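--- STAGE predict ---
source: upstream dedup step, 1 unique chain passed
mode: sequence only
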Amino acid sequence: MKLEIENLHAEVDGKEILKGVTLTVKSGEVHAVMGPNGAGKSTLSNVIMGHPRYRVISGDVKLDGASILSMSPDKRARTGIFVSFQYPAEVPGVSIASFLRSAHGAINGKEMSVIDFQKLVKEKTKMLGISDDFIKRGLNEGFSGGEKKRGEILQMAVLSPRLAILDETDSGLDVDALRVVADGINRVSSSPDMGIILITHYNRILKYVIPDFVHVMHGGRIVRSGKSDLASFIEEKGYSSLEAT
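--- STAGE serialize ---
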């Protein structure tokens, strides 16, 4: 897998948010994207996934050399792109198990047999330390912040995407929940066939999920890239220490 974002400019509601983002993500790599509020981090994830509210002005997004900009969000999902949302929606009356089976069938073009799918889910819940009762619950219905994020990581494990975009997965988590979620990310992302873009404000999750690369966004651009020590620098000095170029 190779994702190439080339000089990407995009707007929402007539306002340009992304102002020339360039980034390459390959299989087996974890890229952390950091930045203050309004930097364009979540806009980047929405544009990659094809949210209809966001319009690409110029530039391109390519997966394995082919542009995905003309694809609908469901087609992008079928190419192996997954997004974990900052605020997962609550869907009363639909169990996690039912949702996972429908999503898995939609992405793969056919449904697994009930027995085979139960085996798959059992394997993933065991790997993540999730109880059997958890998947019987309504999707995000009455969930704590940590439970919602664990549900998102379970989705990622079951769907096994080639590119996973985790949009502020650490948002609203206490220390214990953060460690549990980070452990889940590490277990799922251990596949050499998966690339990850981890979007976050803070360095705290990066103490548990060690990125290969850290990129800092400011003013709709990536203004600095480096290794994991860049996140520590930002934590100490703040985003104000970096100026957009």
